[in-house]
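Chapter summary example.
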Amino acid sequence: MAAFDPWDPAFVADPYPAYADLRGRGRVHYYEPTDQWLVPRHADVSALLRDRRLGRTYQHRFTHEDFGRTAPPPEHEPFHTLNDHGMLDLEPPDHTRIRRLVSKAFTPRTVEQLKPYVSQLAGELVDGLVAKGGGDLLTDVAEPLPVAVIAEMLGIPESDRAPLRPWSADICGMYELSPSEDTAAKAVRASDEFSAYLRELIAARRKNPGDDLISGMIAAHDEDDDRLTEQELISTAVLLLNAGHEATVNSTVNGWWALFRNPDQLAALRADHSLIPSAVEELMRYDTPLQLFERWVLDEIEIDGTTIPRGAEIAMLFGSANHDPAVFTDPERLDITRADNPHISFSAGIHYCIGAPLARIELAASMGALLERAPTLRLAAEPERKPNFVIRGLEGLSVEVG
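The structure predicted for these 402 residues follows.
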């Protein structure tokens, strides 16, 4: 297990050889440093994402004590209140009810109507990059596009958007393995500040509803007149913002860094822009933005003869599953024409990413704008990878144009 070390910068830079080793040595491995069972193969990850014996939470069935776990420290409570009322960390029946209500406002038609706005914004951001002769693709294009789009959807005024990305980054720090107390303190502060801001915004929308997602979620109800509570509204808005741009930001910079390292694929894409949809899917597979996703074992399961008891935690290795040669031909090769591409970067089962259609629109729009308006885009400096393992991204991506 020496090769798998999520705190080793060399592993974080390129975890894929270690994944190949894990896949070759079995379907499940106990990893003592995090007290987790690692699952590296695509078939198992895909099946476990749909297995109702596992859950993102256990508190709908067990107390912390019953489950053999320790309650989070009281000082972390603001983060857990925010996190634990969002769809991502709930199980049925609460998950079913909240997702159904959110879906009433977050419809395919709503997302489709955003296409012109997304395309226009992507073009403006790329024009700004070109006018400067280059810059940081992360801060100039990859970050502002999805942040602005989800903020626009939620109805967050432009003047209020500056703290959104820092809040999100601080909250998402808690999704790394064994976060430090400093990371937890930042997440708690961001949770408090973000929640307070949204509480005021929700109150304003109750008085004066608008044509935005928050107003839609306030109004959403089902045949039993069931509605989202205020905390559920707050948690859902934060989840949509965080999940709605973290993966898109990292997919953009990871993707362009991969293209720069594979000039034949970049040349093919420049020659044929109709390859953009398949390129988006392949880049999300090739360097997966979310490398690991966790589940609690609610009822004992068995994987390849190994019994995993109730109370254990399973770490599904998305990055490894997306490089499994049992599913993907020549998985270490970037192939933007790959037709059969059942990657699991958007998860699967009841927790399949509700924002996947929007992410695809954003990724295609930014890629299209860069290909059309910055055809000579090239790497200006070797990028540094962020030290995070779970959420995989770069510190920046310096590029030149012209």
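To summarize the output: The chain has one domain: 9-400.
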